[in-house]
Amino acid sequence: MFAKRVTLKVAHFHDPESMQRDTRLARLLHVLVHMHLRGGTTTSQTIALMLHTNPVVVRRTMGALRDAGFVTSTGGPGGGWTLARDLDSLTVRDVCEAIAHTTLFAVGPAQDNDACPVEAAVNRRINAALAAAEAALMTAFGEVPLSEIAGEIRAPAARGRSR
Predict the structure, then answer these.
(1) What whole-number percentage of the chain has pLDDT above 70?
(2) CB-based contacts of 12: which residues, under 8 Å, 6+ apart?
(3) What are phi and psi for residue 80, nearest 5 degrees?
(4) Residue 68 CB partners (closer than 8 Å, separation 6+)
(5) Signal sequence span per UniProt (predicted)?
(6) Using one digit for the tens of pLDDT, what is the confidence trace for 50-60?
(7) For residue 17, what is the DSSP state?
(8) Tens of pLDDT along 1-49?
(9) pTM of this prediction?
(10) Partners of 83 in beta bridges
(11) Which residues pair with 80 in a beta bridge?
């Protein structure tokens, strides 16, 4: 009989399509800048439409920002989310740290055989490099106030539509 030809997609480290992405940071930054540009109160429904999700997910995610003191929430008709801090006082790092368990990198140490000295040596090097990379990234995030991001955008009313 004929052999069936099978094509496998090999996942490479540098291939962004092969890694699971955590988009919460980008999405929350998106929301905070939109809230600033719109002013006033923004409902969970409005945020859900913006992020192509549902209001329950929005409320759960925005709760982390409320707990960090970045936004306040009001229930009931006319309620929603309001910025509690000026964007000059919020950095990308602040928002990143407010997200409970953000994984910055998709790579990590192996945990196949704790007794293997080779695995232990590899893991030490990987962990050291990841710690250094995370520290550098968090430092860079700390240098970007959200007001700078907002400054790159004209208000939705000025450009005629919202994205």
Answers:
(1) 80
(2) 18
(3) 155, -155
(4) 94, 97, 98
(5) none
(6) 999 999 999 99
(7) G
(8) 444 444 434 444 455 555 567 788 999 999 999 999 999 999 999 999 9
(9) 0.76
(10) 71
(11) 74
Tokens of 38: 């719109």
**Res 159 pLDDT > 60:** no
Cα–Cα distance for residue pair 163/155, rounded to 1 Å? 11
CA distance 79 to 81: 7
Tokens encoding 51 = 């992020």
Question: Positive or negative CA dihedral for 137, 140, 146, 152?
Answer: negative
Identify the pLDDT of residue 67. 95
Phi-psi region of 80 (alpha: psi -120 to 50; beta: other; left: phi over 0): left
CB-based contacts of 147, cutoff 8 Å, min separation 6:
86, 87, 88, 90
Q: Is 30 helix (H, G, I), strand (E, B) or coil?
A: helix
Residues paired with 71 in a beta bridge: 83
- Does 62 score more than 70 pLDDT? yes
- Tell the CATH topology of 23-159: Arc Repressor Mutant, subunit A (1.10.10)
- Best CA proximity match to 155, nearest among 61, 40, 51: 40
**Alpha-carbon span 51 to 35, nearest angstrom:** 13
